[in-house]
Amino acid sequence: MPKIKVVYYIKKDGSIPVQEFIESLETKMAAKVMRTIKLLQDNGSDLRLPHSEYLTDGIYELRSKQGSNITRIMYFFVIGNKAILTNGFTKKSQKTPKKEIELAKKYREDYMKRILGGGSDES
To answer: What's the pTM?
Structure first.
């Protein structure tokens, strides 16, 4: 399988939620997250547990753990061998919060409209 391109979703206002999340992490955790992103880049849709899990409706989560800290980064795939990373959070419970999945879906919808030409606004 060829490498895939991993892209950070950029909101209309120019902010990048995943980058902001990674920058907010402690150094070792941020390094672990970046290694997991590299695994996604190298393995694409073949990446499975414990590093990646399909959640619902085309939304996946990248899973990273450092000590007792657990982080998740939501993402989806688009045509052209790309994975779009949308949002991240530190996991506090067993189940991925519904609001994080809904946020990933909202960002995906925006990405499809603005970036892939589903809408007229390119900014």
So the answer is: 0.91
